[in-house]
Protein backbone atom coordinates (compact mmCIF):
# COMPACT_ATOMS: atom_id res chain seq x y z
CA UNK A 1 0.00 0.00 0.00
CA UNK A 2 2.85 2.41 0.73
CA UNK A 3 4.31 1.87 -2.72
CA UNK A 4 0.90 2.31 -4.35
CA UNK A 5 0.22 5.56 -2.43
CA UNK A 6 3.62 6.88 -3.47
CA UNK A 7 3.40 5.98 -7.18
CA UNK A 8 -0.31 6.07 -8.14
CA UNK A 9 -0.62 9.65 -9.44
CA UNK A 10 2.82 9.81 -11.09
CA UNK A 11 1.98 6.51 -12.80
CA UNK A 12 -1.32 7.95 -14.05
CA UNK A 13 0.39 11.06 -15.41
CA UNK A 14 3.16 9.01 -17.01
CA UNK A 15 0.48 7.03 -18.88
CA UNK A 16 -0.64 10.35 -20.36
CA UNK A 17 2.89 10.96 -21.60
CA UNK A 18 3.95 13.35 -18.83
CA UNK A 19 6.91 11.38 -17.51
CA UNK A 20 8.69 8.05 -17.53
CA UNK A 21 6.41 5.12 -16.76
CA UNK A 22 9.26 2.76 -15.90
CA UNK A 23 10.28 4.89 -12.90
CA UNK A 24 6.87 4.27 -11.28
CA UNK A 25 6.44 0.58 -12.20
CA UNK A 26 7.19 -0.70 -8.67
CA UNK A 27 3.55 -1.26 -7.54
CA UNK A 28 2.81 -3.27 -10.69
CA UNK A 29 5.87 -5.44 -10.12
CA UNK A 30 4.82 -6.03 -6.50
CA UNK A 31 1.34 -7.05 -7.67
CA UNK A 32 2.91 -9.38 -10.26
CA UNK A 33 5.11 -11.01 -7.62
CA UNK A 34 2.28 -11.49 -5.15
CA UNK A 35 -0.82 -12.17 -7.30
CA UNK A 36 0.64 -13.16 -10.67
CA UNK A 37 1.07 -11.73 -14.14
CA UNK A 38 -2.64 -11.79 -15.03
CA UNK A 39 -3.60 -9.51 -12.14
CA UNK A 40 -0.66 -7.18 -12.81
CA UNK A 41 -1.72 -6.82 -16.47
CA UNK A 42 -5.30 -6.17 -15.33
CA UNK A 43 -4.20 -3.37 -12.99
CA UNK A 44 -1.93 -1.93 -15.67
CA UNK A 45 -4.85 -1.93 -18.10
CA UNK A 46 -7.10 -0.22 -15.53
CA UNK A 47 -4.52 2.49 -14.87
CA UNK A 48 -4.01 3.05 -18.60
CA UNK A 49 -7.77 3.11 -19.23
CA UNK A 50 -8.31 5.60 -16.40
CA UNK A 51 -5.53 7.83 -17.76
CA UNK A 52 -7.01 7.82 -21.25
CA UNK A 53 -10.48 8.68 -19.91
CA UNK A 54 -9.09 11.79 -18.17
CA UNK A 55 -8.71 13.52 -21.55
CA UNK A 56 -12.38 13.34 -22.66
CA UNK A 57 -13.46 13.83 -19.03
CA UNK A 58 -11.65 17.19 -18.83
CA UNK A 59 -13.12 18.24 -22.17
CA UNK A 60 -16.58 17.25 -20.94
CA UNK A 61 -16.20 19.29 -17.74
CA UNK A 62 -15.16 22.36 -19.73
CA UNK A 63 -18.12 21.90 -22.09
CA UNK A 64 -20.50 21.42 -19.14
CA UNK A 65 -19.23 24.61 -17.48
CA UNK A 66 -19.66 26.52 -20.74
CA UNK A 67 -23.26 25.30 -21.13
CA UNK A 68 -23.99 26.16 -17.51
CA UNK A 69 -22.65 29.67 -18.09
CA UNK A 70 -24.74 30.07 -21.27
CA UNK A 71 -27.86 28.80 -19.45
CA UNK A 72 -27.47 31.39 -16.67
CA UNK A 73 -27.20 34.20 -19.24
CA UNK A 74 -30.48 33.29 -20.98
CA UNK A 75 -33.30 35.83 -20.67
CA UNK A 76 -36.63 34.74 -22.17
CA UNK A 77 -38.27 37.16 -24.58
CA UNK A 78 -41.94 37.71 -25.39
CA UNK A 79 -41.78 35.38 -28.42
CA UNK A 80 -40.60 32.44 -26.28
CA UNK A 81 -44.02 31.95 -24.66
Distance between the termini: 60 Å
Rg, nearest Å: 21 Å
Please give the domain count.
1
Structural class: mainly alpha
Major beta-sheet overview: none
Helix content: over 70%
Task: Give the total of beta strands.
Answer: 0
> What do the pLDDT scores average to?
83
Taking pLDDT < 50 over at least 5 consecutive residues as the criterion, the unreliable ranges are: none
**Helical segment tally?**
3
Q: Beta-sheet strand percentage?
A: under 5%
What does this structure look like?
The chain has one domain. α1 (2-15) packs across α3 and α2 crosses α3 (37-72). The termini are far apart. The protein contains three helices and no strands. The chain has helices spanning 2-15, 26-35, 37-72. The chain is mainly α and 81 residues long. Helices cover 74% and strands 0% of the residues.
Task: Give a quick summary of the entry.
This protein is mainly α and 81 residues long. Helices cover 74% and strands 0% of the residues. The protein is rod-shaped and about 70 Å long.
